[in-house]
Design brief:
The chain is of the alpha+beta class. The protein is about 20% helix and about 40% strand. The chain has one domain (about 1-60, about 75-100, about 120-145, about 195-360).
Length: about 400
C-alpha cells in the first residue's frame, strides 16, 4: 500500500506541474483560490524548493498502524452557460444552456478500510429552436439531480433526495449501489482490488508513447515520477508551460510551498491545436487551419491551478479557480482551400460562453459515518433503469 501512496503522491505533484495543460481559498466555498504572496521564481529557485519534498511523505506514512488520510472534496459551478446561433447552408437554429452544480465529499482512508460520504446537486436547462429544419432532435428542458452519495471499499451508494428530472424521462431507483469492479473494470477491462495484497509498481504506467511527440506533457510527468525532481526536469516543465502552453508559474515559500499556475488565452489555442494534432486531421482541412476560421474574445479570463504543501512536507490542498466569459465566432467557407472565392459560409456559428466556479481537495481530519441501511441498497442493473419508449 505504501508504494501505491508514493505513486499517488508523485502523480499529484507532477500533475500540479503540468496541471494547467489540462485546463485542465478553501474547499466548498465560493472562491477556490489559495491565498499567498506569489512571485515568479527562477528555474533554480523552484528546483531547490521542489527538491526538498519527500514524495514518500507527501500523504503521510501509510505503513503506520494508526494511519488515516482524510480528504475533503468540493466543487461548485456558480455560473455556466452557452448560447449560440448556428447557420448551416442557410438554415439557422439557436441553442442555449444554463447549468449550476454543487458537490461536497469527504473520504477517509485507513490501512484496511475506505469510507466516503457527500452530496451532489446539479441543474441544467437546455433550449433549442429551429433544429427541425435539419431533421434533428435534441431533448430540451430541465434536468435536475439531488443525491446523497456514499462509498466503502466495495461499492458506491446513491440515495436520491428528490426524484431526478430530465427531458427524456429516464428514472433511477430511489436508492442503489454500484460495485467499483463494475465502474472501473468496465473502463479498464479488468477487476480492481482497492486493497491488493500484491505489490504495486513504484512507477505507475503513464501510457506514454515512446515517440517524440508529447502533446499533453505526459512524458514530462512520467520522467518526474521515474527520476524524481531534478533541475533538468524543472527546466523541461517550465519551458513546456511557459513557451508551449502560455502558462505563468509562481510560488510562495514563506510557509511550506505554494504553487500557482495561471493559464492564459494562449493556453486555449495551445489545447485546441494539441487536440487537432492528436486527432490527426489532414493538412489543408478546416481543422488543420482552424485559427483562420475561429475567433475568440474574452471579457474575463482566469484559470488558476494551486498546490499547497506545508512546511512539514505534507500536502495540504489542491484547487482550481476559474472565471471565463468569452464570445466566439466560427465561419467555415464552402471551399476551405479558397475561402475568398465565395461570398457565403457553409457553416457560421456565433455565441457566448461563461464558466465561473472552482473545485478542490483539502487534506484534513474528516469524520465519515456510513448509514446502516446502505447494505439494503439494491445493486443497479439494466432492469432498474427506466427509459421511456419513444416509438422508434
Amino acid at each position: 500500500m505504501k508504494k501505491l501512496f508514493v505513486g499517488c503522491s508523485a502523480v499529484i505533484l507532477a500533475g500540479a506541474l503540468v496541471g494547467a495543460t489540462a485546463c485542465g481559498g478553501g474547499v466548498g466555498g465560493n472562491n477556490y483560490s489559495i491565498p499567498g504572496k506569489y512571485t515568479a521564481a527562477t528555474n533554480e529557485e523552484l528546483a531547490a524548493e521542489l527538491s526538498k519534498i519527500d514524495m514518500e511523505g507527501l500523504l503521510g506514512d501509510p505503513t503506520a498502524e494508526d494511519y488515516s488520510l482524510g480528504i475533503s472534496f468540493g466543487a461548485k459551478l456558480r455560473e455556466a452557460g452557452l448560447s449560440a446561433s448556428v447557420d448551416v447552408e442557410g438554415m439557422r437554429f439557436d441553442i442555449s444552456t444554463e447549468e449550476s452544480l454543487e458537490a461536497n465529499y469527504d473520504i477517509l482512508i485507513r490501512q484496511d478500510s475506505l469510507a466516503g460520504a457527500g452530496s451532489y446537486k446539479a441543474e441544467m436547462n437546455l433550449e433549442a429552436n429551429g433544429l427541425e429544419q435539419l431533421g434533428a432532435y435534441l431533448p430540451t428542458g430541465e434536468t435536475t439531480n439531488d443525491m446523497s452519495v456514499y462509498n466503502d471499499a466495495d461499492y458506491l451508494y446513491v440515495k436520491q433526495n428528490k426524484p431526478m428530472k430530465n427531458p427524456l424521462g429516464v428514472t433511477l431507483p430511489e436508492t442503489f449501489k454500484v460495485s467499483f469492479n463494475e465502474i472501473i473494470g468496465d473502463a479498464f477491462g479488468e477487476d480492481v482490488d482497492m486493497f491488493p495484497d500484491e505489490k504495486v509498481p513504484a512507477v505507475p504506467d503513464t501510457g506514454v508513447d515512446s515517440g517524440d511527440d508529447d502533446l499533453f506533457g505526459d512524458q514530462i510527468i512520467g520522467g518526474v515520477i521515474e527520476n524524481g525532481i531534478t533541475a533538468e526536469s524543472v527546466d523541461e516543465v517550465l519551458f513546456f508551460l511557459n513557451n508551449t502552453m502560455g502558462c505563468q508559474v509562481q510560488m510562495d515559500n514563506s510557509d511550506g510551498l505554494k504553487l500557482k499556475l495561471s493559464a492564459s488565452e494562449k493556453t486555449v489555442w495551445a489545447l485546441i491545436n494539441m487536440f487537432l494534432q492528436q486527432e490527426s486531421f489532414a493538412p489543408g482541412t478546416v481543422a488543420d487551419g482552424l485559427e483562420d476560421y475561429l475567433t475568440i474574445s474574452y471579457k474575463n479570463f482566469k484559470f488558476d491551478f494551486y498546490v499547497d504543501i506545508g512546511s512539514d512536507g505534507l500536502l495540504r490542498e489542491v484547487s482550481i479557480d476559474f472565471d471565463v466569459d468569452a464570445h466566439f465566432a466560427l465561419h467555415v467557407p464552402e471551399d476551405p482551400e479558397d475561402p475568398e472565392s465565395l461570398s457565403g459560409d457553409m457553416i457560421a456559428v456565433t455565441g457566448d460562453f461563461v464558466l465561473r466556479g472552482g473545485l478542490g481537495a483539502e487534506i484534513k481530519k474528516v469524520q465519515v459515518k456510513l448509514p446502516a441501511e446502505l447494505q439494503n441498497y439494491p445493486v443497479l442493473d439494466e432492469t432498474s433503469i427506466m427509459i421511456p419508449s419513444f416509438g422508434y
